[in-house]
């Protein structure tokens, strides 16, 4: 592929992907490895608001909410990062 | 500019008009990603890239994928191999092109993947997720033929069933010998989960038998948790021999069914040899593996440090503090897919954070875990300070049962996300 073709392709792709979502905030993509559809032993995040997710993460981090594992993961994110993840997760509800 | 590439630009301009009218349909202008390997890393990356508008071709010679996580329960006898098997129908339905062939080589300059059949596939970006190969040159006496007598069972499938059938056929009072390699290798806590479950099987069905675990290390993942559980559950059955106590396997003899260490010779009724490993052979052929046998990567994009426009994810990658696990591969695949889509648009990916969680089953309804958060620093992936760790020592049996249930739930969710 020539440089010219590559440039055109990148341009077309950026125009064409207007429907693509904005990139997920750091860490957010990992959640779906464990949290899936409702009904599993690990709770689903579907239907939770950004505030609910932020609050839960804060409680896991402080130890106020007992956990087997989420306490260890919640400590890896500061408040800004946690809120960004929560907002992104809440916005995913309508899309698969 | 040649006339051929001018035509390319002109046809691109025509596509532009079309794509403006229908922004989600990019048609022929869609950039092309080729992904090598349809495991947890490759199949995840294929799905995410496809959803991000990239045309994806996935190279995977096997029609059915056999998952390694939970395969120790097949060896234990409490799970069917069928529960480990997944197809690619869902990926095909989403428009991902599956080519059931092995990649034979890569031409980095021409951006072409060469297939075993001789045909070539062009790419704008190539993602390699080839998993591991056993190093059959690393342990004297242990090669592919020896693995049919002393299975490694470190790639799930026939090897898993072979080890299971050998345990079933063994007399009560027999000796099982496991050989565990030095780091790095696929699934750091896996050998110790397997040792636990084999010990549980012996305790339940063949209580006069013994399991000797010969280790090329002095320390391992979730060590205190495993050792406390072994002391409680499997005293007199499971013996772990550390490197410092002469645990490193130096040679095996399938003829004599003997596993040789620096200090000893262990006669085995069943021998499970987990040999040293390296990145899947295509990584070497593509030039993305270094002399360690693994693949150095950029921690933000998973771009190869050795070849342009190639990315490496999963067990084959040198991912710093991240272990070689299905969870890590899945986490890396999503970050890599996002980065590749942005790079194809000429944009710069932001610094990511990645997670890992590994559950191990020590006995039925007895689960333990390690979890951590990672981010790029100083050119590698490191632990986020203050985060991560293992299950609480001395937790109640109720907590252990809950972690075992979570492990089961995790496997259902991740396998559904990747293949379902």
Q: Structural class given helices, strands, pairing of chain B?
A: alpha/beta
The strand line-up of the biggest sheet of chain B is 5-2-1-9-20
Number of helices of chain A: 4
Q: If you consult CATH, what is the topology of the largest domain in chain B?
A: FAD/NAD(P)-binding domain
- What overall form of chain A do the CA principal axes indicate? globular
Note the main sheet of chain A. Answer: none
Give the strand content of chain A: under 5%
- CATH class term of chain A: Mainly Alpha
Provide the helix percentage of chain B.
Answer: 25-40%
How many domains is the backbone of chain A divided into? 1
The radius of gyration of chain A is 18 Å
Order of helices and strands of chain A: HHHH
Biggest beta-sheet profile of chain B:
5 strands, parallel
Note the gap between the termini of chain B.
Answer: 46 Å
Q: Class of the largest domain in chain B, according to the CATH hierarchy? A: Alpha Beta
CATH architecture of chain A: Orthogonal Bundle
């Amino acid at each position: 592929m020539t440089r010219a073709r590559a440039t055109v392709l990148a341009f077309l792709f950026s125009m064409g992907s207007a429907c693509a979502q904005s990139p997920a905030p750091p860490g957010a993509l990992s959640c779906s490895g464990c949290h899936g559809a409702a009904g599993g032993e690990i709770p689903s995040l579907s239907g939770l608001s950004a505030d609910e997710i932020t609050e839960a993460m804060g409680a896991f981090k402080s130890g106020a909410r007992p956990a087997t594992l989420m306490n260890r993961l919640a400590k890896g994110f500061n408040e800004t990062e946690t809120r960004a993840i929560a907002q992104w997760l809440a916005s995913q509800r309508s899309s698969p | 500019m040649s006339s051929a590439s001018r035509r390319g630009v002109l046809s691109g301009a025509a596509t532009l008009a079309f794509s403006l009218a229908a922004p989600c349909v990019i048609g022929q202008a869609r950039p092309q990603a080729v992904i090598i390997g349809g495991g947890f890393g490759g199949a995840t990356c294929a799905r995410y890239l496809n959803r991000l508008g990239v045309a994806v071709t996935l190279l995977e010679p096997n029609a059915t994928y056999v998952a390694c996580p939970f395969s120790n329960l097949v060896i234990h006898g409490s799970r069917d191999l069928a529960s480990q098997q997944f197809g690619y129908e869902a990926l095909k339905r989403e428009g991902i092109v599956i080519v059931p062939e092995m990649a034979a080589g890569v031409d980095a300059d021409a951006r072409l993947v060469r297939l075993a059949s001789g045909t070539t596939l062009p790419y704008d970006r190539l993602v390699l997720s080839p998993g591991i190969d056993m190093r059959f040159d690393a342990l004297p006496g242990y090669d592919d033929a020896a693995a049919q007598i002393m299975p490694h069972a470190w790639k799930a499938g026939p090897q898993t069933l072979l080890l299971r059938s050998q345990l079933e056929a063994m007399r009560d009072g027999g000796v099982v010998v496991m050989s565990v390699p030095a780091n790095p290798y696929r699934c750091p806590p896996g050998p110790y989960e397997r040792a636990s479950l084999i010990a549980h099987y012996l305790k339940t069905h063949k209580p006069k038998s013994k399991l000797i675990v010969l280790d090329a290390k002095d320390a391992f993942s979730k060590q205190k948790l495993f050792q406390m559980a072994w002391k409680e559950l499997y005293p007199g059955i499971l013996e772990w021999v550390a490197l410092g106590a002469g645990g490193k396997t130096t040679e095996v003899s399938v003829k004599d069914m003997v596993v040789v260490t620096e200090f000893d010779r262990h006669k085995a009724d069943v021998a499970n040899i987990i040999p040293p490993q390296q990145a899947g052979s295509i990584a070497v052929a593509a030039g993305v593996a270094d002399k360690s046998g693994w693949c150095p990567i950029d921690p933000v994009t998973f771009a190869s440090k050795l070849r342009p426009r190639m990315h490496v994810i999963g067990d084959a990658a040198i991912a710093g503090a991240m272990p070689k696990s299905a969870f890590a591969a899945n986490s890396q695949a999503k970050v890599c897919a996002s980065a590749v889509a942005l790079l194809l648009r000429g944009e710069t990916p932001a610094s990511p954070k990645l997670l890992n969680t590994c559950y191990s089953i020590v006995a039925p309804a007895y689960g333990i875990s390690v979890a951590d958060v990672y981010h790029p620093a100083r050119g590698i992936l490191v632990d986020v300070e203050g985060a991560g760790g293992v299950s609480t020592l001395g937790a109640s049996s109720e907590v252990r049962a809950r972690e075992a249930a979570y492990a089961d739930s995790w496997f259902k969710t991740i396998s559904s996300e990747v293949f379902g």
